[in-house]
Design brief:
The protein is α/β, with parallel strands linked by helices and 286 residues long. The chain folds into 2 domains: 86 residues, no CATH class; 143 residues, Nucleotidyltransferase, domain 5. Helices cover 47% and strands 13% of the residues. Strands 1, 2, 3, 4, 5 and 6 form a 6-stranded mixed β-sheet that branches. A hairpin with a 4-residue loop joins strand 3 and strand 4. The chain starts with a helix and ends with a helix. The relative contact order is 0.15. The mean pLDDT is 87.
């Protein structure tokens, strides 16, 4: 990377720049194994390293494709790589391997599981974009997240903007089976919106402990309980996720592109929160 690119990355990532640079350093060999640039006669190919760094810049800043700085290369070529990476599910496979590798390193990694959803604006519509009265009747998409007790994202599920979070808890546990395979007798934390008999039965049947508060109108006897402090960690995850402007200012209609944006964002969050020693062990096993 030239000095101009380094300065741009330091500016947008600030404190977490060293961790992001470490992630890019480890990702580039994997990226080169999965993709090969097309050789065109008489034309110089873009470096895969520059293409990967440009994707991180675009997703962090949310700038239009035409306004990507020229130091990264031609914006049309970068957009072509963006579409190619989105269709190949490269970051999805990479992130799942990273989470599974960390579970082997830390046995208590899945001691607690937190589930919650967040509404993300969909400026340009899309498959799942719907107008939600809870979001000032704006067009939004609902993204359901599953994280561990420390707020590290494990998996997510994209649904319609008017879908209630309680309808997505069972599907996200089913689709995350390969990631939470080693979870035994884990405690599931969620808010009152998930206080349904079907959800409690599903979790107990799958050998989970349920830490979901009761609604007051349903059972006053169990309504007053200590506040669950761990639920706030997933809210901090949402706040950190929305600092990646490409997710918050969603203009893409394609579900693959939206998933790519989220997977790159949670890869950065994961790298920031996990220690360097644990990351080295994770990358060595991938």
């Amino acid at each position: 990377m030239n000095d101009q690119i380094v300065q741009l990355l330091k500016k947008i990532f600030s404190i977490s720049y060293k961790k992001i640079a470490y992630l890019l350093e480890k990702l580039i060999p994997l990226f080169k194994k999965s993709f090969r640039p097309k050789l065109r006669h008489g034309k110089k190919c873009m470096s895969l390293k520059d293409a990967l760094v440009a994707l991180f810049y675009k997703i962090k800043t949310g700038c239009p494709w035409r306004q990507i700085p020229e130091c990264f290369g031609n914006w049309r070529t970068i957009y072509g790589w963006y579409r190619k990476v989105a269709l190949a599910n490269f970051f999805e496979n990479f992130y799942k391997k990273l989470v599974i590798a960390l579970q082997k390193e830390k046995p208590d990694f899945l001691k607690d599981l937190i589930a919650d959803g967040t509404l993300i604006p969909a400026k340009n519509g899309g498959i799942y974009a719907k107008r939600n009265p809870r979001a000032q009747n704006k067009s939004v998409t609902n993204v359901m997240f599953l994280s561990n007790g420390k707020g590290l994202p494990l998996n997510f599920l994209i649904a319609s903007g008017v879908t209630h979070d309680s309808q997505l808890l069972q599907p996200i546990f089913i689709t995350s089976r390969d990631v939470i395979k080693s979870a035994k007798n884990s405690i599931v934390h969620a808010d009152k919106g998930f206080d349904l008999r079907e959800i409690r039965r599903f979790l107990i049947k799958n050998n989970y402990w349920v830490q979901i508060p009761y609604r007051k109108f349903k059972n006053r006897m169990y309504a007053k309980r200590p506040i669950d402090r761990k639920r706030g960690r997933i809210e901090r995850l949402f706040a950190r996720l929305k600092q990646f402007k490409s997710i918050l200012l969603t203009f893409n209609r394609s579900i693959n592109s939206f998933k790519l944006d989220i997977f790159i964002a949670i890869s950065c969050i994961f790298t920031e929160k996990v220690s360097r020693k644990s990351l080295d062990l994770c990358f060595s096993s991938i």
